Amino acid sequence: MEELRHCAVKGRLRGLLCARRDVFDLIAGAEIYALSPSRGEAPARPGQTADQSLKTVLRRIEAPELEERRKGARLAMHGTTSADGTFCLVEPRYEGGEVDVYAAISSLPVPGSQRSARLEQAWILYLGTYDPRQGPIELLLPSAIWCKLKRLLDIWTIVGRVASCAHPSVPVIGVTVRAFDVDWLADDELGSAVTLADGSFRIDYLGEKYRKGTFIDVELFGGPDVYFKIESSTGQALLTEPGSKGREPGRADSGPCLCVDLCLDLPGGDTGIPTAWTKVGLAFTLPAGPSLHDFDADGYAGAARYGLSQTIRATGSAPLKNGGNPVEYRFLVSSTTAPNGAPPVPAAQFTRVVGKGADASLFSSIPVGQMVRYLPFFEIVDIAAEHADLDADGWLDVNRSILRTFSTHLTLTPADIPAFQYVDLDGLMGINTAALTTAPDVPDGAADAGQPIPAADLISVQKVAVRFEIRDGVSHVPLAGDGTTLNSMVINNNAVFAKVEVTEHQSLGSCSPLHGAIHLAYTVYHPLLQGMSLSVASNDGGSYTAHLTDPPSLPLSGNTNPAVTGQSNPALAVPPPLHRCTYLVTLLANPRLHTGDTPVGGVMPQTTFYWEGP
What we know:
The protein is mostly beta strands. It is 8% helix and 39% strand. The chain has a 5-stranded antiparallel β-sheet, sandwiched between helices. The protein has a 5-stranded antiparallel β-sheet with strand order 18-17-20-28-24, with no helix packed on it.
């Protein structure tokens, strides 16, 4: 929660949907009242969670009672919750002490729209007595209250998680969950969602979804009888529950807050390792469904809005076997992109396969795992994916990487493989973004120090989409995670253009001693520029040091604005007083580039001058 120092009372209001999974709604637009305490109200118990306290003290009151309390209170504060459920009550006269907290809820958001549905009469709840000096107040309405409000407005929610049946701690990522209601004539589809990185999903819908399709409103007083279907990203059926499942306890006549746990047998077979591409390197988690994680809609990575550069590691996990058959996977690239968070770029648009044929240069070797054994002594064999391990269509089977490694080992042979166990190191495949970069560097002769870069030599921002495919190596049936797509990834491998000279040297010659005012000529350019600085220091132990400024962009640090790509000046004055000495001029320019594991360094051109006197 953002720290708001001007708030007398601050906190957050949420509504609990599923206690066992700790899933809740953020309650926006609720009115919050904090009043000097009344002896007749019950305090929230110190040391308990907000939910435990609310179970003890929460009660509904009528508007006249709240109005009477407001009028009789020595101090009354009022505010409204924002979109994330947070509130900030401002009162300069508040000097600390306990407050009675009330919430008035008049509306709830309508799924799939920007509008809200309003209650016929606001629900006013007393939420307990709190001391704001102990920190932000966390208010969590119990599901019995919150879900009753959702039912009043006919707003329904299903939350759940999909995991491996054999290994419940292993999530199934990127599969589509569809919810249905059993009906007399035709089952109603309530909605669908794609599982996130932890296997979780959420489906919101209106009650009209499960009441349509029949001339008799057979479910006027009850709720939907819910069952599920799960599909891979390519539409393959992974789980199809029978309609009778919706008639079972816990599913039949389900309420407005349904919490479920589903499982699949496919991911990872009997190994417990999921089949999933989840990150680029160690730093950037992929978007999952509408959630953007570490990539924004435009394809930039991280808060610094990096472009990806050099060799990037596609990371995640893939078991060696699926039900006894080998697992194989590959990566494809498309120049057709879409915003991250939008539906995936269609598979037909991915015409370049990493490592295949003319695109062999897109493949880079990276470590993928290790083989380990304990007897007769502890031994580790590193396994890397090499281009030789790919088949003609770019599919990688790590079993081939293991076989090749043991076949060329100095002391081991393929016969030793059964004595080892495989350890997945999360590396799936290296992708060489330099082979995708199409724009040439700015030519060295395009500009001298102090001159702007000609328009014809400017570099456009380049984006690609990347798709992951994984399947059973024998049946070729896609496995969960197949089709995972990064819709947009900004890439760049261009060098930073940076030059600096002493302006007076340009006319007098670089070895000439200088007198009087000194000026610097500099030029910096990169389409993804993060920062630049220019400094001058004397060579006598730093008795003179100056960090130059040149508005609007020098110095520059942490830049994320795509419009700020550089700057030039033919004669930037060096501030006096100078003394007789040799001076070092340093220009530092950093690009906004990252490999997924480490940032890419910049350039630091330098020059010197000797100042002899006035």
